Amino acid sequence: MTTHRDAKGRPIVAVTGLGVVTSLGQGKETNWKALTAGQSGIHRIERFPTEGLRTTIGGTVDFLFDEPFTAPQLSEKLATLAAEEAVTQSGLGTSGDFPGELFMAVPPVEMEWPQKQEMAQAIEGDVDYDGLLRAAETGKFRAMHELFVFGGVADHIADRFGTKGSPISLSTACSSGATAIQMGVEAIRRGDTEAALCIGTDGSIHAEALIRFSLLSALSTQNDPPEGAAKPFSKNRDGFVMGEGAGALVLEDYDHALARGATILGIVAGCGERGDGFHRTRSSPDGKPAILAMQDALADAGLTPDDVDYINAHGTSTPENDKMEAMSCAAVFGERMASLPISSNKSMIGHTLTAAGAVEAVISFLTIANGKIPPTINYANPDPAITLDVVPNTARDAKVRTIISNSFGFGGQNTCLVLTAPPEAA
Question: Fewest CB within a 10 Å sphere: which of 60, 228, 381, 392?
């Protein structure tokens, strides 16, 4: 049998399954139809009261579930739906015995105010630390504590799909979903596993989260109309809109996939990651870590900037991030940036935070498969300091074989993926 290796002699990492859930709907077909139609999933939040909040909108996923859930419960349900779609498409491990490892990006959630208040009310006498510890030991609150344990969601997903080894939970802020994919790629390249289930999920829109991001001046306050708030690269952008969702990818050693007759949907050709110690929430003004992450991803893939057909932007719609990303891309791609398409899925689905890198990787592979680039919507007031081809407002037909997908997160996490068409499509 012919052994396929990349230019560095490593196993080629193929994608054989994709799954996605966002505020636009469940599944690849529904999301792709809405994305290419320029539809927005941003709406007024009805899950909890928003009176007194500066931001009252979000890309919540409410249409699938009737009952209220905590952030870990919703994150798990979204991850399950995305993973079911990806695993089913791959035909690998559909009987609950997935023959590979799980790498899962999950939000770093903790007990929310309602749970904390309920625990405090259960204490007799003074509400102090010792009283909270005693309450936490009781059956009801012990179960609540276990619900919010960081690795709990991945444990449940591992049980559901029968993944092998210890499930990996990770959280690298807004780059988490891309990091999960990177970890799967590296495990396959090392020969640790022949397959990996990589998931990014986030169902953490609640009042406390909105307030925390508002205190950082990170969220848009342009609440009316909701669908017009996320406007990446526009002059009047004022912050991101929180979104919920999940993206799942089944990765395989290319030879393993071929041997079982699987359909190859694409290749994860390169990964780049750089840390930025400049500030907890702000990027380095010179954009150096983002520049190096993109350059590292291209070098890892054995490609050059000229090989890239499209950039799936991080594109959060915050004043600083969009400016930094535009500058960084210009440093990597030079004069090509005047005509190289770059668009932001977040203009339609909001910023799905921990899930974003995985959700946007799924959308990138759909872009390759369908020969159409989703637009950046709400682009009516161009920023003269950002001269990019943002694929404004309307999807564009284009032959796309190589994509860079950018994920730049709080805490200095910068992860870039190079995603390419399957070799047989050449």
Answer: 381
